[in-house]
Amino acid sequence: MSLNEGVKNNKRTIAKAITTIENGGSEALTLLKQIYPKTGTAHLIGITGPPGVGKSTLIDALIGQIRKNGLKVGVLAIDPSSPFSGGAILGDRIRMQAHTLDNGVFIRSMANRGHFGGIALAAYDAIRVLEAFDYDIIIIETVGVGQSELAIAQMADTTILALMPGSGDDIQAIKSGIMEIGDIFVINKGDLPGANKAASNIIHSLDLIQEKADWTPPVLISIAQEGIGIEELWQAIGEHFKFLKSSGKLEQRRKHRIKSELAELVAAKVRQSALDFIDNSSNANELVNDVWLHKTDPHLAAEKLIKSIV
Ligand SMILES: Nc1nc2c(ncn2[C@@H]2O[C@H](COP(=O)(O)OP(=O)(O)OP(=O)(O)O)[C@@H](O)[C@H]2O)c(=O)[nH]1
Ligand SMILES: [Mg+2]
Fold first, then answer.
1. Orientation of helix 25-35 relative to helix 116-132, angle to 10°
2. Domains of the chain: total
3. How far is the CA of 55 from the centre of ligand 1 (A)?
4. In ligand 1, which atom is closest to the CA atom of 49?
5. How remote is the CA of residue 215 from the centroid of ligand 1, in Å?
6. 3-state secondary structure string, 1-54?
7. Do both 41 and 135 map to the same domain?
8. Which of the ligands is closest to the CA of residue 143?
9. If you take atom 29 of ligand 1, which residue's CA is the nearest one?
10. What is the pLDDT of residue 265?
11. Whose CA is nearest to atom 1 of ligand 1?
12. By residue range, what is the domain housing residue 150?
């Protein structure tokens, strides 16, 4: 597929390009080689948090704010439940309709295929497709507060941790050590009781972990459904981006991201070579026998295999 000028801004072309990338193979590599020089231009914003706190509603409200500023926005919702990619989850599909005719908004769900490396690598490349189509802001929504969310949060320049009052989310976040990844905290559903208490819990625990930090994460309260607190959130996002640029942290984070991606890519390729080799070489077959007969142990055998593979 080629990205010629005539089809720029065409959502179907973008969707196809992302599918090509998800499918991998030589077509994906050709496409990525073609677009890579045009990438690295967007502000990547990660929004993560427990299920149902209102992340998608927040994003929907943010889209309005971003469009008011004349910027193009892409959203990748990393959907942990859907067994295959390409199909938007229901909530996102309903919301998406509001933006169907707006070429400045692109929303896509990507399925977590049960293998974290896969989805992370595909997401890196999907971001690049959006950048190649001149999207200024790219928002990545992930659900949950586990290891894979942390890793996906690492992709973002700015990570927003969304929580809600009265659910113990704040305490949970503090306990699970996920606080460190938040550049901005949002207590959504501010219309429910306990929002102020949740915010002050977060502020207090941030004080404890962030003694000499040069960025103090703001803790905001929003009612996403009513668009309340969204302007403040957008402003905080802008301030964080400015801070990243002026402090040199943007370069630092992005280089860190490149390292993670390279490690993932190398691991995936080496894993594949190892599987191929173990399945197909007589050398490996002999080693399997030796381990089976307890002539050698799996660790030693692995060392020997590595030498034959690389
Ligand atoms: N009371 C109240 N409800 C809200 C608010 N924002 C969102 N909701 C509702 O909360 C529910 C979940 O909202 P979503 O935006 O789908 O939440 P989410 O965090 O994206 O959910 P998952 O992607 O499934 O984890 C919906 O019924 C929303 O209408 C709010 O500010 N106040
Ligand atoms: Mg959602």
1. 40
2. 2
3. 6
4. 19
5. 28
6. CCCCHHHCCCHHHHHHHHHHHHHCHHHHHHHHHHHHHHCCCCEEEEEEECCCCC
7. yes
8. 1
9. 225
10. 87
11. 189
12. 5-247
Ligand 1 first shell, C-beta below 6 A: 51-57, 91, 143, 188-189, 191-192, 223-225
Q: Which of 119-123, 269-273, 278-282 has the lowest mean pLDDT?
A: 119-123
Are 203 and 292 in the same domain?
Answer: no
The alpha carbon of 211 and the centre of ligand 2 are apart by a number of angstroms equal to 33
For ligand 2, the distance from its centroid to the CA atom of residue 89, given in whole angstroms, is 9
pTM across the whole model = 0.87
For the stretch 187-234, pLDDT in tens is 999 999 999 999 998 898 888 776 667 899 999 999 999 999 999 999
Is the same domain home to 81 and 142?
yes
| Residue that terminates a domain, selected from 212, 247, 282 | 247
- 255 falls within a domain: no
Residue nearest to atom 26 of ligand 1 (CA): 54
Which ligand is in closest contact with the Cα of 51?
A: 1
CA of 49 to the centre of ligand 2 (A): 10
Question: pLDDT per residue over 6-43, tens digit each?
Answer: 434 578 899 999 988 888 889 999 999 999 998 999 99
- Residue 160 belongs to a domain: yes
Same domain, 43 and 173: yes
Q: Which pLDDT belongs to residue 81?
A: 53
- pLDDT, residue 35, reads 94
H-helix segments, the chain: 11-23, 25-35, 55-68, 90-96, 116-132, 147-153, 169-176, 195-209, 230-247, 249-280, 282-292, 298-309
